[in-house]
């Protein structure tokens, strides 16, 4: 198996909704909805990676992030470690810079969208937290 990919993932949250983009068909897990984010590079921390990726992918300036959970998942073709953060303070308005389909979704809608398998635990945790 290849080296486990370290990925910084941001749950962009505002007023009970999260911002999602849809992965391009040619990408790994193509066609599925995702939380914006990407690979942590060799010379950076996961916080730096999240800040950089959310600026590159959706043009927001992350002002605060708090850890939600970490997920280790093995797909058939690769293994990932997702470090997932809630981002509820940011500058600017998220807008895909990569021409992806995008949108704000209420937590209750998430169950009906198609995500990569590893994301099920993120959805579960968000719904649990919202129940309090
Ligand atoms: N961004 C993101 N990646 C996810 C999620 N769930 C999940 O399994 N992944 C996996 O994490 C891996 C890395 O994410 P990525 O493709 O966004 O990485 P990146 O932005 O650096 O992409 P690049 O290689 O095009 O530069 C992919 O294999 C992707 O399938 C998610 O919710 N968001
Ligand atoms: Mg990405």
TrEMBL record:
Catalytic activity, as annotated: 8-oxo-GTP + H2O = 8-oxo-GMP + diphosphate + H(+); 8-oxo-dGTP + H2O = 8-oxo-dGMP + diphosphate + H(+)
GO molecular function: 8-oxo-7,8-dihydrodeoxyguanosine triphosphate pyrophosphatase activity; 8-oxo-7,8-dihydroguanosine triphosphate pyrophosphatase activity; 8-oxo-dGDP phosphatase activity; 8-oxo-GDP phosphatase activity; metal ion binding
Key words, A-Z: DNA damage, DNA repair, DNA replication, Hydrolase, Magnesium, Metal-binding, Mutator protein
One Pfam entry name: NUDIX_4
Bilayer-spanning residue ranges: none
Cofactor: Mg(2+)
Biological process (GO), any one: DNA repair
Binding residues for Mg(2+): 37, 57
Residues noted as binding 8-oxo-dGTP in the record, renumbered to the chain: 23, 28, 34-37, 119
Listed Gene3D superfamilies: Nucleoside Triphosphate Pyrophosphohydrolase
Domain Nudix hydrolase: 2-128
PROSITE patterns, sorted: NUDIX
Family annotation (PANTHER family): 8-OXO-DGTP DIPHOSPHATASE, NUDIX HYDROLASE FAMILY PROTEIN
Family membership noted in the UniProt record: Belongs to the Nudix hydrolase family.
Protein name per its UniProtKB record: 8-oxo-dGTP diphosphatase
Protein's organism: Thalassotalea mangrovi
Lineage of the organism: Bacteria, Pseudomonadati, Pseudomonadota, Gammaproteobacteria, Alteromonadales
């Amino acid at each position: 198996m290849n080296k486990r990919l370290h990925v910084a993932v941001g749950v962009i949250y505002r007023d009970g909704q999260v911002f999602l983009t849809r992965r391009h068909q040619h990408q790994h897990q193509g066609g599925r909805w995702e939380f914006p984010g990407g690979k942590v590079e060799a010379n950076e921390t996961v916080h730096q990676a999240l800040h950089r990726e959310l600026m590159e992918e959706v043009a927001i300036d992350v002002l605060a992030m708090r850890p939600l959970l970490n997920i280790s998942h093995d797909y058939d073709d690769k293994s990932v470690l997702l470090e997932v953060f809630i981002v509820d303070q940011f500058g600017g308005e998220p807008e895909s810079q990569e021409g992806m389909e995008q949108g704000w979704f209420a937590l209750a809608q998430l169950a009906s969208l198609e995500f990569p398998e590893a994301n099920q635990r993120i959805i579960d945790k968000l719904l649990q937290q919202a129940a309090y």
